UniProtKB/TrEMBL annotation:
One record GO biological process: innate immune response
SMART domains: RIO
Native species: Drosophila virilis
UniProt xrefs under InterPro entries: Kinase-like_dom_sf (IPR011009), RIO-type_Ser/Thr_kinase (IPR051272), RIO_dom (IPR018934), RIO_kinase (IPR000687), RIO_kinase_CS (IPR018935), Ser/Thr_kinase_Rio3 (IPR017406)
Keywords tagged on the record: Antiviral defense, ATP-binding, Cytoplasm, Immunity, Innate immunity, Kinase, Magnesium, Metal-binding, Nucleotide-binding, Phosphoprotein, Ribosome biogenesis, Serine/threonine-protein kinase, Transferase
E.C. designation(s): 2.7.11.1
Protein name, as recorded: Serine/threonine-protein kinase RIO3
Entry GO terms, CC: cytoplasm
Chief place where the protein resides: cytoplasm
Catalytic activity, as annotated: L-threonyl-[protein] + ATP = O-phospho-L-threonyl-[protein] + ADP + H(+); L-seryl-[protein] + ATP = O-phospho-L-seryl-[protein] + ADP + H(+)
C-alpha cells in the first residue's frame, strides 16, 4: 500500500535552543550556510569552477585560519584593525584581502589629506584676506606669512598650475594698485589752474570723469572696516562722484552720529547746532570735529579738520556756500558757534520789560534770527578787514549761527592771545606798531571800529598780530563809534604800558592819530563814560538795528542819561540861582540895615578912590 505521504526522512531533526536561534551569530551562520549550499548547487549546475563570492564565512574562515581567536562572522573588523600588526608580524594574508584592505586604507589617507589640504587652503585664504584688508594702500605693509599653513592646496591643485595661478593673482592685484597709483599721480600732476595738456595735446582737467571715477574707487577701499566694500581693486572699478558721495555719506552715518553724541555731551551745543555741524561733515567740507578751543559767554569755538576730498561742489553741483576755492580750503578750521541762549538776552528781557518805553511793545521774538545776524556780521566784518590786508582768519563758510574760519595755529595748537604770548622787547615794539597801524587802517580804509579790541582778541602767530572776534565791530558813524574807538585805544595803550613799552601814545593821542579828531573837542572821553554806564557792547552794537526786535535793541542810553543829566543840570542851575538870589537878598538886607552915609562921608569916599587910581 502506497502511502500518500512521502517517505519520512530518517535524518534526525536537529535541535536548537531558542537562545541560539535568536542570536545574531547563529543567524549569520545559517545565512552563510545557505549561501554555500546555493553556491555548490550553482557550481554543480554550471559544471565549472568558480571563485566563491566573498562572504562573511570566507572572511570568518580565513580569519579563523589566520588568527587564533574564536571564529566569528564579525571578526573581520578586528582583523582590519589588526592589519598593521599583522603586516608587521609578516603573517601571511590571502592576497585578495590584503589588496582590498590596502586600497581602503590608502583611499582613507588620501581623503584625510585632501580634507586637511582643503582646510589649510581656506585658512590661508582667510589670512591673505585679512592681510589685504590691513594693508590697503598703506605704505607700510604687514605680512602674516609666518602663520600660513604648509599643506595649502597640495592635494587640491596641480602644484605648477597653482603657482602660476598665484603669480597671476599677485600680478593682477599689483596691477590694480598700480592703476590707483598711476591715477593719483596724474591727478597730482594737474596744476592749480585745474587742467593740463597730455602728450597727445589733449586737455585733462581735475574733474575728468575717468580719473575721478578711479580715485573714487580707490577711496571706497579705505572706508571703515565695518562698511563692506568688497575688493574693488581686483577689477577696473570706477565710481561717479554721485555714487561715491552717497556711499561715503552712508559709510559715515554711524560715525557722524557718534561724533554728534560726543558733541552734545562734551561741547554743549544744542540739537540744531549739531545738525548744522553734521551737515558740514556730510557736505564734505569738514572731515571731523576735534574738540573745544574756547567756551565763552557768547560763543563756543571748536577745532575741526577740513575734508581733503572736498572738490568745490557736491553731487548737485553746489558749492555748499563755501566762500573760497577748494584748493584754498585750510586744513585746520576754527568753528565759531554763536550761543543761542545768551544770558545777556535774558537779562536784557528783564531790563526792557521794566522799562516803561517798551512796556507795550515787549514780546518774545525769535532769538535765533538775531544770533544768526551776529554771525553774519562777524563774517562781513572779517571779509572787510581782509580786503584791506589786515591779518584776520579767512572765512570758510557761514551756516546760520555757525561760522567756519581758518584756524590760527598749527597742529591743533591755537596761537596764543597777545596777553599770553611771550614777546621779546623787539617783538613787543613790533606788535605795538602793527596794532596802531592796523587800527588806523581799520578806521580809515575799512571804515570800521573793532569795538572790543584788547590783548584778548589779538592772537600772536608767526610773528604777527591776528585780529579776531569782530562781530561787534561797527562803522565810525555808529552813534557810539567814537566811544568804542576811545575804549579800544585805552585797552591797547594800557596793555603796552603794563608791559613797560616806552614812548607810546596816550589813549587820547592814539585816538587823535587814528581819527584826526581832537578827543577833547569831541569829548570822546565823556562819551566813553556815558557808554559804560549805559548799555553793554552787545546791546550797543547789535547787528541790523532796523530789523532787530525792539526788546533786543540797545537801550537808548543817552535818553536816560541825558534826561538824568539835564535834570541834574536843571537842579544845579536852580540851586545856583537860588544861591545867587539868597546872596542878593542877604546883601540887600545888609544894605537896608546899615545907616545911610552922610553927604560928607560920600564925598570923602569918592575922593579916596580917585586918589588910589592915580597912584
Ligand atoms: P568770544 O566771543 O568768546 O571772545 P572769540 O572769537 O574771541 O570768541 O574766540 C575765543 C577764543 O577762541 C579766542 O580767544 C582764541 O583763543 C580762540 N579762537 C577764536 N578764533 C580762532 C581762530 N580762528 N583760530 C584760533 N583760535 C581762535
Ligand atoms: Mg573774544
Amino acid at each position: 500500500m502506497s502511502s500518500p505521504w512521502s517517505k519520512v526522512s530518517a535524518e534526525p531533526v536537529q535541535t536548537a535552543n531558542l537562545a541560539d536561534i535568536m542570536s545574531e551569530q547563529y543567524a549569520h551562520r545559517l545565512h552563510d550556510k545557505e549561501l554555500k549550499e546555493q553556491q555548490l548547487r550553482q557550481e554543480k549546475q554550471m559544471q565549472t569552477v568558480a571563485t566563491p563570492t566573498p562572504s562573511y564565512s570566507n572572511v570568518v574562515d580565513t580569519s579563523a585560519s589566520a588568527s587564533s581567536s574564536d571564529a566569528g562572522a564579525w571578526e573581520d573588523y578586528s582583523m582590519l584593525l589588526n592589519l598593521e600588526e599583522a603586516q608587521q608580524q609578516k603573517e601571511p594574508l590571502p592576497g585578495d584581502i590584503l589588496t582590498l584592505l590596502q586600497d581602503e586604507a590608502e583611499s582613507d589617507a588620501v581623503i584625510a589629506q585632501m580634507l586637511q589640504s582643503q582646510f589649510d587652503h581656506e585658512y590661508n585664504e582667510e589670512l591673505r584676506r585679512i592681510e589685504r584688508q590691513q594693508n590697503k594702500q598703506s605704505k607700510v605693509t604687514v605680512t602674516l606669512n609666518k602663520y600660513l599653513r604648509s599643506g595649502d592646496a597640495e592635494f587640491l591643485h596641480d602644484t605648477e598650475a597653482d603657482e602660476d595661478y598665484e603669480e597671476d593673482e599677485l600680478a593682477h592685484r599689483k596691477h590694480d594698485w598700480d592703476r590707483f597709483e598711476t591715477n593719483e599721480k596724474i591727478l597730482d600732476a594737474i596744476p592749480k589752474c585745474g587742467f593740463k595738456l597730455d602728450k597727445e595735446g589733449e586737455m585733462i582737467t581735475k574733474h575728468d570723469p575717468q580719473l575721478c571715477g578711479v580715485r573714487n574707487a580707490q577711496r571706497v577701499m579705505s572706508f571703515p572696516p565695518e562698511f563692506p566694500t568688497g575688493d574693488g581693486a581686483c577689477f577696473d572699478m570706477k565710481l561717479s562722484n554721485k555714487v561715491f558721495n552717497q556711499l561715503k555719506a552712508y559709510s559715515r552715518r554711524g560715525r557722524a552720529d557718534r561724533k554728534e553724541k560726543v558733541a552734545t555731551a562734551e561741547m554743549g551745543v544744542d540739537a540744531a547746532t549739531r545738525l548744522l555741524l553734521y551737515k558740514l561733515i556730510n557736505n564734505q567740507i569738514l572731515e571731523q570735529i576735534n574738540g573745544i578751543i574756547s567756551t565763552g559767554k557768547e560763543a563756543v569755538i571748536l577745532h575741526a579738520n577740513s575734508d581733503a576730498s572736498y572738490t568745490g561742489t557736491n553731487e548737485h553741483g553746489h558749492g555748499n556756500g563755501v566762500l573760497m576755492p577748494a584748493e584754498l580750503l585750510p586744513k585746520e578750521c576754527a568753528i565759531k558757534v554763536f550761543k543761542t541762549t545768551l544770558n545777556e538776552f535774558k537779562q536784557r528781557d528783564r531790563y526792557i520789560k521794566d522799562d516803561y518805553r517798551f512796556k507795550d511793545r515787549f514780546s518774545k521774538q525769535n532769538h535765533r534770527v538775531i544770533i544768526n545776524m551776529w554771525a553774519e556780521k562777524e563774517m562781513h566784518n572779517l571779509m572787510r578787514m581782509q580786503s584791506i590786508g589786515l591779518n584776520v582768519p579767512d572765512v570758510v563758510v557761514l551756516k546760520k549761527h555757525v561760522l567756519v574760519m581758518r584756524f590760527i595755529g598749527d597742529n591743533h595748537n591755537a596761537a596764543p592771545k597777545l596777553k599770553d604770548a611771550r614777546l621779546s622787547a623787539a617783538e613787543l615794539s613790533c606788535a605795538y606798531e602793527e596794532i596802531v597801524a592796523a587800527m588806523h587802517k581799520l578806521y580809515n580804509e575799512a571804515k570800521l571800529v573793532h569795538a572790543d579790541l584788547s590783548e584778548y582778541n589779538i592772537l600772536w602767530y608767526e610773528g604777527k598780530c591776528w585780529f579776531i572776534d569782530v562781530a561787534q565791530s561797527v562803522e565810525p558813524e555808529h552813534p557810539s563809534g567814537l566811544e568804542f574807538l576811545m575804549r579800544d585805544c585805552a585797552n591797547i595803550v594800557q596793555f603796552f604800558e603794563r608791559r613797560g613799552l616806552p614812548n607810546i601814545y596816550t589813549k587820547e593821542q592814539l585816538f587823535e592819530f587814528i581819527t584826526a579828531l581832537n578827543a577833547e573837542t569831541h569829548n570822546a572821553a565823556m562819551l566813553e563814560r556815558i557808554h559804560t554806564r549805559g548799555a553793554s557792547i552787545n546791546q550797543a552794537t547789535v547787528p541790523n538795528q532796523l530789523e532787530c526786535p525792539d526788546e533786543l535793541k540797545p537801550l537808548e542810553y543817552p535818553f536816560e542819561l541825558a534826561w538824568e543829566k539835564s535834570q541834574q543840570e536843571r537842579e544845579a542851575a536852580a540851586a545856583l540861582r537860588q544861591l545867587q538870589l539868597n546872596d542878593e537878598e542877604a546883601k540887600q538886607e545888609q544894605a537896608d540895615e546899615q545907616p545911610e552915609h552922610t553927604e560928607e562921608v560920600k564925598t570923602k569916599l569918592n575922593n579916596d578912590n580917585t586918589a588910589k587910581c592915580v597912584q
